[in-house]
Model the fold of this input.
Amino acid sequence: VQLQASGGGLVQAGDSLRLSCTASGGTFRSYAMGWFRQAPGKEREFVASVSWNGGTTYYLDSVKGRFTISRDNAKNTVYLQMNSLKPEDTAVYYCAADLLSVVASTSRYDYDYWGQGTLVTVSS
Done:
């Protein structure tokens, strides 16, 4: 499975961005997907995850109400819509696939494949 993330960029506080992650290989509709992020000098942290059919989602508390994860199984793509961005959202964002589960895990250790990361920078 290969994951290609895109959509990052430099924005101002309060702006929006939509990240995309397209998968190739495997059967996309059969596994859960997640987004994680890593800021300079910090551990990689969970941001959001979605079950195989989009029916279950989980979010980091600090992004609830601002970020929305969704997926389009026909396009093998998962999205992260980020609204009301804050400087503390600045990080490299990674998408990840959990091939062993259809449910949405919040632990990075459950994810088997990772995209290359896309940088999101939010200026104040």
Residues 66 and 123 are 17 Å apart (CA to CA). The chain has no helices and eleven strands.
